[in-house]
Amino acid sequence: MMQDKQYLMIPGPTPVPPSVVAAMSRPMIGHRSEDFAALHRRIQEKIRQVFQTKEDVFILTNSGTGGLETAIANVVSPGDRVLALITGNFGERFTKIARAYGAEVDEVSFGWGKDVDLSVVREKLAGNPGYKAVLATQNETSTGVLNDIAGIGALVAETPALLLVDGVSGVGGIEIRMDEWHVDILVTASQKAMMLPPGLAMIGVSSRAWEVIEKNRAPRFYFSLPAARKSLEKWNTAYTPNVALFQGLDAALDMMMNEGMENVYARHRLLARAVRAAVRALGLEPLAADHCASPTVTAVRSPEGLGADDIRKVLKEELGITFAGGQGILKGKIFRIAHMGFAGKMDVILGIGGLEMALARLGYPVELGAGVRAAQEVFLGRNE
Amino acid sequence: MMQDKQYLMIPGPTPVPPSVVAAMSRPMIGHRSEDFAALHRRIQEKIRQVFQTKEDVFILTNSGTGGLETAIANVVSPGDRVLALITGNFGERFTKIARAYGAEVDEVSFGWGKDVDLSVVREKLAGNPGYKAVLATQNETSTGVLNDIAGIGALVAETPALLLVDGVSGVGGIEIRMDEWHVDILVTASQKAMMLPPGLAMIGVSSRAWEVIEKNRAPRFYFSLPAARKSLEKWNTAYTPNVALFQGLDAALDMMMNEGMENVYARHRLLARAVRAAVRALGLEPLAADHCASPTVTAVRSPEGLGADDIRKVLKEELGITFAGGQGILKGKIFRIAHMGFAGKMDVILGIGGLEMALARLGYPVELGAGVRAAQEVFLGRNE
Q1: A356 interfacial to chain B (CB closer than 8 Å)
Q2: Nearest C-alpha of chain A: how many angstroms from B300?
Q3: ipTM
Q4: HSE-up of B312 (CA within 13 Å, CB side)?
Q5: C-beta separation of A271 from A369 below 8 A
Q6: What is chain B's percent helix, strand, coil content, to nearest 5?
Q7: B285-297 burial, b for 16+ CB within 10 Å, e for fewer?
Q8: End-of-domain residue from the set B224, B258, B292
Q9: Which domain holds residue A279?
Q10: Is B2 among the domain residues?
Q11: Which parts of chain A sit beneath pLDDT 70?
C-alpha cells in the first residue's frame, strides 16, 4: 500500500478541494490591507447565505471549541442559569464550557444515539422561566444524530432565553436558517462541511443576542464579540486572522454558491441515505434512527463479536481508508463514516467497498458487493 | 456533481501523488547550480534501478514522442532498414517517426489487441540480415497489450540490429530489465507509471547503441544524445531542463524505491487481474487475451448495442470518472481503464462501481455490485 494513497472519511478534518488548496497557496496579503478588506467583504456576503442570516457572521481564528467558548464568554455571566440539551460528546463539551464560565447548568441528556425530544424541552422551558440561554447541538458528531433546531428555536423564542447552537459539523452541509429558526448564536468551524483545514470558527449573532452581549461582564479579550463587531465595520478583524484560511474560505464559499445551497444539502442527504442502505445491506445497523439521521456523518454499530476499532485498523492499514471511532461510552462499539463537505457518490462506493473487504478479512460473513449495490441503487433512484 | 471531484483513470496523464506535488512546488533552483547537479545525480542512481541498467539514463525535457524521436534521430540515417513490430497506435507512431528520418521500414502488424508473435520476429530476422534497428512497444497503450520484450530482445541480440523499445506506458509499472533483456534504447515518459505530470522523457542507451549513435549523420541538436552524454558527465543537461519535474521525479523515484520495484510490479499485476475479473463478472470482455494482458491499462470491448463513448460520457458527466476511449480502428468500440502509477485497490473499486452505475443508467442489464465483488475477491485472494 502506498503511503500517499489515503482516504480520509472522518467527521473533520475533511478532504480539502483542489481549488481551495490553490486559493490557500496564493501569496500572503497583509491583514490590514485593502486586499484583505475586499476578501473579508466577499466572504461576509456569501457566508450570510450559508447561515441564512441578515446579521454579521464573524470569522475567528480558532477552532470550533474556541467558537463555542466565544458564544459562552459573551453571553454567560457567573450564576446565570443555562439549559443544555445533550445528545452526545459535543453537547457535553458545550456544557463544560458554560460551567467554566460559572453558569448553573440544567443538563438534559437524551442518550447517545437519540435526538432532542421537543416535549422535554417544552416542559423544561415552562417550568424554569429564568434561563439566560439554551445550548443545543445541530448535528451531534459523536453519534450521527441530527437535532430539530427549527423546533427547538420555536420553543426558545417564546422565552427570554437565547438559543446558542453548535453547528460545527452541520453548517455548510445541512440546512440551517438562523433568522427564521430563531437561532441567536450559531457557531461553526472550517474543517467540517466548510471544506477547509482546521483553524477558523464562524459565529453568527442575532440582534437579541447583542442586547445580552453588550451587558455581559465576563472576562473576554481574544473572544470579544464587541471587538469583532467594531473591526468588521471596516472589513477588518480585531486580531491577526489566519489569512490563508480566509483565502480558502472565499474559494470554498464560491464552490457552495456555484453548486447552490439546496443542492449541497440534497447531496449530503443522498450520501447519508446511501450509506445507511449500504450498511443495512451488510447486516449492520446505524446508531441513529432514520428520523434523526445526520446527513453528514453516519455512526454504525459494530457487529456482534467484532470490535469497531479492529475494522478501522484493517481499513487504515490495508486500504488507506480512515473511518472515525466511537467516543466516550461508544468507544470500540461504533465506527463513524463521514460524508461531509467535499464528498460525493464515489466516496460512498469506495468507503463501503472497503468496509466489505475489511469485514471479510476479519471473518465476518459478508456478501461482497451487497453494500455497494445498495448504495448504487440509492444513487440510481431504484429504491424509492 | 462537484467540478472539483474528479477521478482520472486514463493511461496518462495519471494522478500525481501529494508528495510529488509538494516536491514540484519547492522553490526553483538554477539548472547550472550545485543543487541541481546533486538532484540530477540522485535521480540517476534511482532511475537506473527502474530501467535495470548500468548505463546512463538521460532525462530530457519533452514528452514521450520527443523521447521516441530522440531514439530514432540518433540511430537512423536515411536509407537504413528498420523492422517495426506493430501492435497498435503507438507502434504505428514509432514507425512514422522512423520514416520521417528516412528509414526504409519493414512493418509487421500483429493486429490491434494481439501481441508480437516471436516466431514471426525470428523469421523476419533470419530472412533480412540488414536491419539497423528493430522497433518494439513494451506496453501498447491503445490496446492494453503487453509484449514480450525479453523474448524479442533475445532474438534481436543474435543480429547486428539495435532493439529500440517504447516503454512509455510501462516503465515504472511493469518489469523491464534493459541490460539483461538486451534492450539497446529504452524510452519512457513522466506522465504514466512514473506518476508525474507530462513534460519529461527518459531514455536509456546501451554501449552497443553508442557505437551506432556516434557514427550517425542525421540532423539533431535538441535531440542529440552525444550532447546529453557530455552534459551528464557534470550532472548537467545540455539545454534548460524542466526543473520542477526533475524535483518531482526525485520524489516519485523515492516512492518507488520505498515500495520496492518488485512490489510496484506486483501491485500493477494485481490491479489488472482485479479489473479483468470485474469486467468479466459484468459480462464484458477485455480486448487483450490473458497471456498478454497489460498490467497498467485494460481495454474493454463495449457490450453489443452500447457505444463505448456513451458509457464514458455518463461516467464523466454524472460521476466525475474519466476512462479513455478507443483510438484509430477501435474508436467507439472499446473503453480503456488505467491502473497505472499512483493507483491502488480502491481506485479499482471506485472505477468498477462507477462503471456498473453507468451501464445501469444506459439500460444495460447489469447486476449491480457483481463487478465490485469480483475485484474484491481478487484482492482478498479468494479466486486463486
Answers
A1: yes
A2: 21
A3: 0.93
A4: 22
A5: no
A6: 45, 15, 40
A7: ebbbeeebbbbbb
A8: B258
A9: 7-13+260-379
A10: no
A11: 1-2, 384
**Residues B273 and B202 reside in one and the same domain:** no
**In 3D, which of A6, A16, A5 has the Cα closest to residue A245?**
A16
How many domains does chain A fold into? 2
For residues A177 and A149, what is the distance between their CA atoms, to the nearest angstrom? 9
Rounded to whole angstroms, the Cα distance separating A12 from A195 reads 9
Using a CB–CB cutoff of 8 Å, tell me whether A379 touches chain B.
Answer: yes
**Residue numbers of chain B with a pLDDT score lower than 70:** 1-2, 384
Q: How far apart are CA A110 and CA B166, in angstroms?
A: 67
Between vectors from CA A129 to CA A127 and to CA A130, what angle results, nearest 5°? 130
Is the Cβ pair B376, A356 closer than 8 Å?
yes
Dist CA A171 CA A146 (whole Å): 12
Q: What is the pLDDT of residue A171?
A: 98
- Please give the interface size between A and B, counted as residue pairs whose CB atoms are below 8 Å apart: 113
Angle at which helices B345-361 and B308-319 cross, to 10°: 110
From the number of C-beta atoms within 10 Å of its C-beta (0-12, 13-18, 19+), residue A32 rates as exposed
Which of B215, B234, B258 corresponds to the end of one domain?
A: B258
Residue A90 within a domain: yes
Identify the pLDDT of residue B4: 81
The neighbouring-strand residues paired with A139 are A146
DSSP, collapsed to helix, strand or coil, labels residue A83 as strand
All 3 cell numbers of residue A19?
481549488
Distance CA B338, CA B38 (A): 34
- Does some domain include residue B304? yes
Same domain for A91 and A230, yes or no, is: yes
Among chain B residues, CA nearest to A353: B349
* Cis upstream peptide for B13 (omega within 30°): yes
